[in-house]
Amino acid sequence: MDKLALTKLSYGMYVVCTKNGDNFCGCIANSAMQITSEPATIAVSINHNNYTNQCIKSNREFSLCVLGENVNPLIIGTFGFRSSKDYDKFANTKFFVKDSLPICEDSCAYILCKLIDFVETSTHTIFVGEVFDSEIIKNDTPMTYSYYHNVIKGKSPKNAPTYME
Amino acid sequence: MDKLALTKLSYGMYVVCTKNGDNFCGCIANSAMQITSEPATIAVSINHNNYTNQCIKSNREFSLCVLGENVNPLIIGTFGFRSSKDYDKFANTKFFVKDSLPICEDSCAYILCKLIDFVETSTHTIFVGEVFDSEIIKNDTPMTYSYYHNVIKGKSPKNAPTYME
Fold first, then answer.
1. pLDDT at A158 over 90
2. How many CA atoms lie within 13 Å of A1's alpha carbon, on the beta-carbon side?
3. For residue B160, is it within any domain?
């Protein structure tokens, strides 16, 4: 068995956001995909250790911001390598609020979802959300996970499904 | 709401195979992602109308073949636009068998999974499989769904999660 074969799967780069009371929180995700077309639903996988995980369960709504190749790399650093539990990731991030959900301004598109189901695995929750709003914000090529690794030379944090020691 | 925002999600191109008794079956999927790292699990979404869907439920094992940019386009035509119910897709496809599961020879990698859970949505099943074997077969860049659309000018069949009229 060669675990490197798993690196041949393709992904995008996203910030998944929600709120906890009056505070906004969010984290980087790469495992997101559309599940059904009409009504549109998407699934996104988030580690149990990500504070955003428990906040999606209590808020039952989340936004998925699609990052493009020209996104400010600070967004990936802020949302991917710190915890919303002890740090306000939105303090130095340009964002706007739509239907009570935060959206990073520097995304190419956003998708707003209502949580309709979730599945627990050993380390991650697969959230299934029904899309109730989505818009394209700017003209940029969506960043693939492979672009993040090979061009930006980015790393995977420990909580990523694709993390390897 | 602009449904085109959903086209900004990134995917790969895969053939998901399994067997039904002595017969092999399979279909094209683009919605697949790794969920956990250790043990490795992956999720793949397949339309209820795909014959492969019911066969995975009865066989409880499946293979995920990762297609590369240089794959023979006939594979996409065969596995994406016909049904295994009334056509033997493997009759004109080069494949080999590992642990009783068929694998398309012209893939860059394969991942073999044991079904551990599944979630039903209105039109698709999200299968969650634990990886028990995976290998890289050949050196080719994994094809993204965007490459399939923009370079190969491929279309989405009606059963795809990302299908739009």
1. no
2. 12
3. no
Q: Residue A155: which pLDDT band, with cuts at 50, 70 and 90? A: confident
Phi and psi at residue B13, to the nearest 5°: -130, 125
A5 within some domain: no
A117 touches chain B (CB under 8 A): yes
Residues of B in contact with A132 (CB under 8 A): 1
Separation CA B9–CA A32 (nearest Å): 8
Beta strands in A30-160, from DSSP E residues, in sequence order: 32-37, 40-47, 61-66, 95-98, 101-104, 109-120, 124-136
Q: pTM of the full predicted structure?
A: 0.92
Which residues from chain A sit within 8 angstroms of residue B35, using beta carbons? 31, 45, 121, 124, 126, 161
Q: Provide the token pair at B6.
A: 């959903």
The identity of residue B28, as a single letter, is I
The CATH number of residue B52's host domain is 2.30.110.10
Residue A62 lies in a domain: yes
Ramachandran bin of B15, using left for φ above 0, alpha for ψ from -120 to 50, beta for the remaining angles: beta
Does B4 contact A at CB distance below 8 Å? yes
Domain encompassing residue B48: 12-150
Nearest to A126 among B2, B38, B126 (CB): B126
As a dihedral over the C-alpha atoms of residue A57, residue A58, residue A63, residue A64, rounded to 10 degrees, the angle is -20
Asked whether the beta carbons of residue B36 and residue A123 sit closer than 8 angstroms, the reply is yes
Residue A157 lies in a domain: no
List the 125-144 stretch of B: residues with Cβ below 8 A of A: 126, 128, 131-136, 142-144
Residue A152 — very low, low, confident or very high, per pLDDT cuts 50/70/90? confident
With a CB-CB cutoff of 8 Å, which residues 60-79 of chain A face chain B? 66
Residue B81 main-chain phi, psi, to 5 deg: -125, 20
Count of domains observed in chain B: 1
Q: How many Cβ atoms sit within 10 Å of the Cβ of residue B113?
A: 27
